Amino acid sequence: MEPVLKIEHLTKVYPDGTVALSNTSFDVHPGEFVVVIGSSGAGKSTLLRCINLLVEPTEGDVIFKGEKVNQSKSKQVKHIRREIGMVFQNFNLIDRLSVLNNVLHGRLGYTNTIKGSLGIFNKKDIKEAEAILERVGLKQQKYKRADELSGGQMQRVGISRALAQMPRLILADEPIASLDPASSKNIMDHIYNICQEDQLTAIVNLHQVDVALKYATRIIGMQHGQIIFDGHPSQLSDKVIDEIYDTKKPPLVNAQ
Ligand SMILES: Nc1ncnc2c1ncn2[C@@H]1O[C@H](COP(=O)(O)OP(=O)(O)OP(=O)(O)O)[C@@H](O)[C@H]1O
């Protein structure tokens, strides 16, 4: 099967000289649930941000469905980006907008720019957004302002907005870092189950090794901008964990 995503010799050097990613290469195949682990500053966020061009790589290529994302013209970038849904640690919702309108923002890549900026969406988009909210158990909250929700509910809106894009690939950057253990489990269950049901591919950055082991079909371990482990969760030995975190005590949360 052709990879859905190819990362080739990706390097990111920030303007201050920080080398966040160094000559990183790997392929992701359809249906994989890849969890990227590594200590703070390892380059996990930079990697995801390079994939959807929130950050411009210094060298190397990101190839999504056979197209070089980083060398595409702006119109193609819009088309590529709408198939890559992003879930953020701090949710990135628009507080003053309703839950439904936040989800509809996921349709902007498919909407005429003027209508989108005025918040005018067609009936089909609204029905689709409502169906997604029902899936994550938020249909009753659709007219609430986003800032009236709990953290776990906000993240379910973040997931719904990503799904409204009709993505092929979900990128989640520490989606549970701001949540309590019960909400964390709920959010990881939603992301994992939706990816299974819709046959989506996912790359999820996590700090918690036990959560990674529970959900991942493949784990990538990063250190200092480089991949130092790439394999099945069963291959992630204590020794490898020590190497990735440069410690004998990896961070844990309770993820029954
Ligand atoms: N805009 C920026 N300018 C300069 N350096 C940056 C910038 N963003 C990130 N960095 C640096 O790049 C390196 C990798 O950061 P990144 O956020 O990708 O790591 P991370 O593994 O996601 O860390 P965390 O788990 O803390 O989010 C770090 O040294 C960080 O300080």
From TrEMBL:
Matches recorded under Pfam families: ABC_tran
Any GO CC annotation of this UniProt entry: membrane
GO molecular-function term, one example from the UniProt record: ABC-type phosphonate transporter activity
Alphabetized SUPFAM superfamilies for the sequence: P-loop containing nucleoside triphosphate hydrolases
Cross-referenced InterPro entries: AAA+_ATPase (IPR003593), ABC_transporter-like_ATP-bd (IPR003439), ABC_transporter-like_CS (IPR017871), ABC_transpr_PhnC (IPR012693), MetN_ABC_transporter-like (IPR050086), P-loop_NTPase (IPR027417)
Domain ABC transporter span(s) in chain numbering: 5-249
Keywords, comma-separated and alphabetical: ATP-binding, Cell membrane, Membrane, Nucleotide-binding, Phosphonate transport, Translocase, Transport
Listed NCBIfam families: ABC_phnC
Protein name in UniProt: Phosphonate transport system ATP-binding protein
Originating species: Gracilibacillus orientalis
